[in-house]
Amino acid sequence: MDFLRKKFDEIRKPFNPGGKFEKFAPAINSIDTLMFVPKHNTHKGAHIRDGVDLKRVMVTVIFALLPAMLFGMYNLGYQHFSQLGESTAFLDCMIFGAWKFLPMLLVSYGVGLAIEIGFAIYNKHEVNEGYLVSGMLIPLIMPVDFPLWMLAVSVVFAVFIGKEAFGGTGMNIFNPALIARAFAFFSYAPQMSGDKVWVADASTIDAVSGETILGQLAAGAESSWSVLDMFLGYIPGSVGETSVLAILIGAAILIATGVGSWKIMTGVVIGGAAMGLIFNALGLNALMEFPWWQHLLVGGFAFGAVFMATDPVSGAQTEKGKWIYGILIGFFAIMIRVFNGAYPEGMMMAILLMNVFAPTVDHYVIAGNIKKRKKRLKAA
Amino acid sequence: MSQDIRVKKGLNIKLKGQAAMTTAAVSRSDFYAIKPTDFHGITPKLTVKAGDEVIVGDVVFFSKGNDRIKFTSPVSGTVKEIKRGAKRKVLAVIVESKPEDQFKDFGAANPLSLEKEAVLEKILESGSFAYVKQRPYDIIANPKDSPKAIFVSSFDTAPLGPNYAFALKGKEEAFQAGINALSKLTEGAVNLSVDANEASFFSKIENANIINVSGKHPAGNVGTQIAAISPVNQGERVWTVSAQGVATIGELFLTGKYNPTKLVALAGSQVKKPQYYTLSAGQNIKSLIEENVNVKGSRIISGNVLTGTKIQVDDFLGFYDNVITVIPEGDKYRFFGWLPFVGSSTIHSFSKTSFAWLNSGKEYDLNTSLNGEERALVVTGEMEKVVPLDIYPLQLLKACIANDIEKMENLGIYEVAPEDFALVDYINTSKIEAQEIIREGLDLMIKEVG
């Protein structure tokens, strides 16, 4: 790789200190460090360092997202063609899905990274890798036909207000991807909810129904999908959220590598199941009667539990806190689902709500430790 | 009396070049240095000037803040130079050695038959009080304090750490005398931690509370042992003395001489034949390094790879250091090296985003690469795995960065020293300098609380 390194060193010359574009160094550095781990040596503290860095952690999350993304793309085509009664050959579905999804991905990354690099130049720090994950999450939690310009505006809002306003990566209170979705949801409701948006072209072709399972249930109808479809993901919904199987593969990657907290994931499932059981016992409407374990399969529950709730920055940061945080997310997600008829999905709201309370949860967990210390002082 | 501690958290990093249990001679150096920079927080008041003659044990400078704390020459010779840095800060007092050492006589005595003040006075006069450090703050103790306990760790779990049972072979009597002397200085106990997995003479030491410690690094750190036995509360003082320091203090009482020579391990993958050498604190290491080390492209560290200080070929052994580690410098780009699992066989990682954990017995030849760049604090839950204290490391670090004194107190700043956070330096994903942050936090506490 020496040739490539030399070529790149030539290209980046004007960006080096003293060069013409010195100010824009973070931009070129972000490309540089994407190709090569820089040759920085330790100059204080421990003389040796672990092989892990933030880029590796973030890329692990992206790898974990790939199964959900690939199935999501396939399912875009599958939902569209199957409702039209056309061939659902694998390749056709994939090409259709890619045609629909890749522009969303490009807009998300393009707009988001441009702002991140802009802020890095302005604040004179290096570009943090956080957006590599957010940028992929955002299109995965949007409906397929969401207009690209709206997506772009949502990304701008998420990065500006959701992240940089708080001081950038590591400082944000809310999960940036969910901020993008919440912004889109409240600003562009017709494109984000209802029964016309969850399958490609459902709003323009009458033969295509874009209703989700939760939508059907909220309207008082029975779910028309089999449990296997729910698990495998052959159902309408946001691009990446439908396949529990693909999400579980991602969860396995996150847990095995230790990148995602298994405590939060388990907590969410426990909380959701508990709330589902309570509602099953009450059984007042279709959503309450919907079996508790199927609640965990539909909507954004699994995706949120694995990829959204586990965001270490906006989530609880203490190990005990992670359990509480996770359980409450599951609890509220199902509660919001059942009580809020206008918006039969609770995961986004539940996670954003708990993002707000995560510092409080941590505060009380840490207060226990402080109390122990003070008690010891008194005894001494 | 003996107690057991099992340290469950932590990490052993195995490196190539562990010092063999053999010793080799090293010729007497021409120069020795007493470096105020070895003693954190001490402002030196010099008592010698260039051209003065000194013998071993003569005072070279004392602490401006406390004139009872003296620092003495490790060698007989002539003061050659007072090395100064910016703002005339004294960096080192350099002594050109004579071929033979003459020792100042502080008078042999049995510490057990002396009063506390007499024991303390002798230690202070000889300059060996520098070995007595205190928690909180990890600085040289104040002789006026009466510590609630004294802790001595007789083993080192850091990567390529020296084996004190070997290094102190033949000094068993001195070590016992040192423990006897220390037992006079505290109302509480002298706690001597010994490696539960290795039998040594330390277990048979009297006048000390023997603590059998097992577990991964930092099990051998006094900080870990204090936290488990007698955590430091606000206002309390615990003293700590290194094993080599105890022997030096003991020898003072046995012979009346201050003799800071010790067996020091020369270790690391760049060392031709890693083993032990007899060196004196402050000894110039040029000939030792040039004869035994591949100098080109190497980093020479006085101390271990986690807490040591980078030095040059013609530098001096640090006062507290019992190992000189030499490892390769990084200086290499790695194409797509940030991909998960890439480089698992050559680059150790605590994280499971590398396969290194599958091969925990492997010895690595690690270099000084940062393996990334500093980033915002994102990942949570990793620091807790290597800090076996009952504190929240991430939150404490953040409190230190924010200079929030009340929060630092609440979160346990009095219980920590930079070395307790050395593994956090190593494992943290964001490449933040945890030891430096803790040091600055402690310095702030000294200034504000004292």
Q: What features would you highlight for this structure?
A:
heterodimer; A: 380 residues; mainly alpha; globular; B: 450 residues; alpha/beta; Rossmann fold; OB fold (Dihydrolipoamide Acetyltransferase, E2P); seven-stranded mixed sheet; six-stranded mixed sheet; 10 helices; 20% helix; phosphoprotein (chain A); NqrB (chain A)
Concise overview:
The complex is a heterodimer of chains A (380) and B (450). Chain A is an all-alpha fold and 380 residues long.
Describe the structure.
The complex is a heterodimer of chains A (380) and B (450). With 380 residues, chain A is mainly alpha-helical. Chain A has one domain. In chain A, 65% of the residues lie in helices and 1% in strands. Chain A is built from 17 helices and one strand. In chain A, helix 2 packs across helix 4 and helix 5 runs parallel beside helix 7. With 450 residues, chain B is α/β, with parallel strands linked by helices. Among the domains of chain B are: 158 residues, Rossmann fold, CATH 3.40.50; 67 residues, OB fold (Dihydrolipoamide Acetyltransferase, E2P) (Beta Barrel), CATH 2.40.50; 79 residues, no CATH class. Chain B is 20% helix and 23% strand. Chain B is built from ten helices and 21 strands. In chain B, the strands form four sheets. In chain B, strands 1-14-13-12-15-10-11 form a seven-stranded mixed sheet. In chain B, strands 2-17-16-20-18-19 form a six-stranded mixed sheet, with no helix packed on it. The mean pLDDT of chain B is 95. The chains are: A mainly alpha (380), B alpha/beta (450). At the A-B interface, strand 1, helix 3 and helix 17 of A face strand 21, helix 9 and helix 10 of B.
Helix and strand arrangement:
The complex is a heterodimer of chains A (380) and B (450).
Chain A: H1 2-11, H2 25-35, E1 36-37, H3 54-84, H4 90-123, H5 130-140, H6 148-163, H7 176-187, H8 189-192, H9 213-218, H10 227-232, H11 244-257, H12 262-282, H13 286-289, H14 292-295, H15 301-308, H16 319-339, H17 347-379
Helix pairs in contact in A: 2-4, 3-4, 3-5, 3-11, 4-5, 4-6, 5-7, 6-7, 7-17, 11-15, 12-16, 16-17
Chain B: E1 2-7, E2 23-24, E3 31-34, E4 44-46, E5 53-54, E6 59-63, E7 66-72, E8 77-84, E9 90-97, H1 116-126, E10 132-135, E11 139-140, E12 149-153, H2 164-167, H3 172-183, E13 190-195, E14 209-215, H4 222-229, E15 238-242, H5 243-255, E16 261-267, E17 275-280, H6 286-292, E18 298-302, E19 309-311, E20 323-328, E21 334-335, H7 393-401, H8 405-411, H9 422-427, H10 434-448
Parallel strand pairs in B: 1-14, 2-17, 12-13, 12-15, 13-14, 16-20
Antiparallel strand pairs in B: 3-9, 4-6, 5-8, 6-7, 8-9, 10-11, 10-15, 16-17, 18-19, 18-20
Helix pairs in contact in B: 3-5, 7-8, 7-10
Domain Na(+)-translocating NADH-quinone reductase subunit A C-terminal (chain B): 264-311
Protein name (chain B): Na(+)-translocating NADH-quinone reductase subunit A
Catalytic activity (chain B): a ubiquinone + n Na(+)(in) + NADH + H(+) = a ubiquinol + n Na(+)(out) + NAD(+)
